[in-house]
Specification:
The protein is of the alpha/beta class and 221 residues long. The protein has helices at 17-29, 57-70, 80-85, 95-100, 123-139, 159-171, 206-215; strands at residues 4-6, 14-16, 33-34, 47-48, 50-54, 74-78, 106-110, 145-149, 176-181, 195-197. The structure holds zinc ion.
């Protein structure tokens, strides 16, 4: 799981280009098979799905050449409100940028419209917000995969609310939903709405990256 990409950065949610390139190079050298969520059922020994959240302009600027160079793929989770109205001081992609991403290297998926923490909003809000996310992408002629990254990686943990959420996702035709979790996933899975992503931090060294790829996290106990 990544967010922003910049030439220089020391923030957790922003990876600098040099580190990102080392990581991409490593994935290629180690024969990780890059996939989109739509290809999740293709058998392969070691698969990797690279995800980037929110829809930052810097993804559009830096990722195409890097993905092409290392023959990798990325899934970008779009929060449509961020595209329409902006997010903090950040430069976001436009709908046209998103449309122009090469489909050989990029998959678009859902990150809700309003980017609210699912623990703080009602199930009715979640349902209409997700519908809005999908409808706006459709209106903009952007194909998306029916996969959701929970905003902030969060969703209700209390069992009744969690089950209500999962049945809503199912009714909306969403196949997978992603938390953070820092674990390696195995397929087939019996937890399609709780897939774990590995949080790659901006300052992670290549050693940390390699350990995270194997164990999902650095602290083993
Ligand atoms: Zn986000």
């Amino acid at each position: 799981m990544y967010h922003q990409v910049e030439k220089e950065s020391s923030e957790d949610l922003t990876i600098n280009l040099e580190n990102l390139e080392k990581q991409f190079k490593y994935l290629k050298e180690k024969n990780y098979f890059p996939k989109f969520f739509t290809e999740i059922n293709i058998p392969s020994k070691k698969s990797v799905i690279l995800t980037f959240d929110d829809g930052y302009k810097n993804n559009f600027e830096y990722l195409p050449s890097l993905l092409e160079k290392y023959d990798l793929k990325a899934t970008i989770f779009i929060s449509t409100k961020f595209i329409q109205k902006g997010y903090k001081e950040y430069d976001m992609m436009t709908f046209e940028d998103i449309r122009n991403l090469n489909k050989k290297y990029f998959e678009i998926a859902l990150h809700t419209h309003a980017h609210e923490d699912f623990r703080n909003v009602s199930i009715d809000f979640i349902e209409s917000d997700l519908k809005k996310n999908m409808q706006l992408l459709t209106n903009e002629n952007i194909n998306y995969s029916t996969v959701l990254a929970y905003p902030y990686g969060k969703y209700p943990k209390e069992i009744a609310n969690k089950m209500k959420l999962f049945s809503t996702l199912k009714n909306l035709g969403i196949d997978f939903a992603l938390r953070i979790g820092n674990k390696v996933n195995y397929f087939p899975t019996n937890k399609p709405y709780e897939l774990c992503r590995i949080d790659i931090k901006g300052r992670d060294t290549i050693i940390k990256f390699k350990l995270k790829l194997i164990f999902g996290r650095l602290k083993l106990f």
